[in-house]
Amino acid sequence: MPDTVTQRVYDREDPGGTIRHFLGYQFDLLGIGEHWTSTGTSCGLPMVDNRIPPGLGCCRAHAAVEALWPDGADLGAVVTWSPDREIADRGNSAELDEHRRVRGAAVLKALTSLGYQVRTPGPLQGYSTPWVPTKYVVYRMERGAVPTEWPRDGWEHLARPADHPAWLPWPSGAEAHRVLAGLLEGAGLAGRGGGFFCGGVDEVEWPPFTTECLRVSWRPWGAATVEDWYAAMRKITDFLREKRYLIKVRSRPWNLATDREPYVIAYRTIDHPGGVG
């Protein structure tokens, strides 16, 4: 366990601002985190360094897209485990594979010991370089909520092809982004005309059997009210459904004090390449 650990608190009204620190605190207690500690000062400035036990690698976390949390979850995060630096640097494939197997099982056990539901197997991406991290999507369910059962084959179609260049992301999502951005532009909804724009979603967070998944956000003007936010979401939701996208929205009300911008998730699946949802 690290020498000192600063306690952190999770705020359900501000997941994006508190999840990283809250889970980092829990990881530090379990010895699987990237514990930052003070090492003194230099030229009057505080100096810090991370203390990661050798041979273990470390976990980091950030908030998952809230609209994609399962029903009954009050916390959702993407946890990334990075391999030990020295082991990765040596580049021995057999050693690295064993390191991933052993530490992957330990991290999974640690996450479940904290009471989290861990989504596995997730996208079967395959590892193209030593430094590619292992990703987990974890959820904490509300008391009495029934944990979601994930289909084990729900992400097999996302497996990285053996001949896919290591330096290119997989799946890229570039074509899906181009198409939707073009639809927004053509309808006068993008940029200064409408304020809507689309961005990618990490495939590890995609719903099962999804073939494309994009976050469509609205950039509010300075004096926009919460009523303006909801009006914009109704407008874009109607538009996306007309274009036969499936839709996901978050259940928690928008909060102008903690949310930067409202959004919806537009996606398509293997069984429903176009449809209303």
What would you say this structure looks like, in words?
24% of the residues are buried. The protein is α+β, with helices and mostly antiparallel strands and 277 residues long. It has 6 helices and 10 strands, in the order αββββααββααββαββ. A hairpin with a 2-residue loop joins strand 1 and strand 2. The chain has 2 domains: 138 residues, no CATH class; 96 residues. The radius of gyration is 21 Å and the shape is globular.
Q: What gyration radius follows from the Cα positions, in whole Å? A: 21 Å
Number of strands: 10
Domains counted in the coordinates: how many? 2
The N- and C-terminal alpha carbons lie at a distance of 47 Å
Question: What is the H/E string?
Answer: HEEEEHHEEHHEEHEE
pLDDT < 50 stretches? none
* Coarse morphology: globular
**Helix vs. strand class:** alpha+beta
Task: Compute the average pLDDT.
Answer: 85
Sheet having the most strands: 4 strands, antiparallel
Helix content: 25-40%
Report the portion of residues in β strands. Answer: 15-25%
How many distinct helices? 6
For the biggest β-sheet, the strand order reads 3-4-6-5
Key attributes of the depicted protein:
277 residues, alpha+beta, 2 domains, four-stranded antiparallel sheet, 24% strand
Task: Detail the topology: elements first, then pairings.
Blueprint: H1 15-30, E1 35-42, E2 45-51, E3 58-63, E4 73-82, H2 85-90, H3 93-113, E5 117-119, E6 134-141, H4 174-186, H5 191-194, E7 196-200, E8 210-218, H6 226-242, E9 246-248, E10 263-269
Antiparallel strand pairs: 1-2, 3-4, 4-6, 5-6, 7-8, 8-10, 9-10
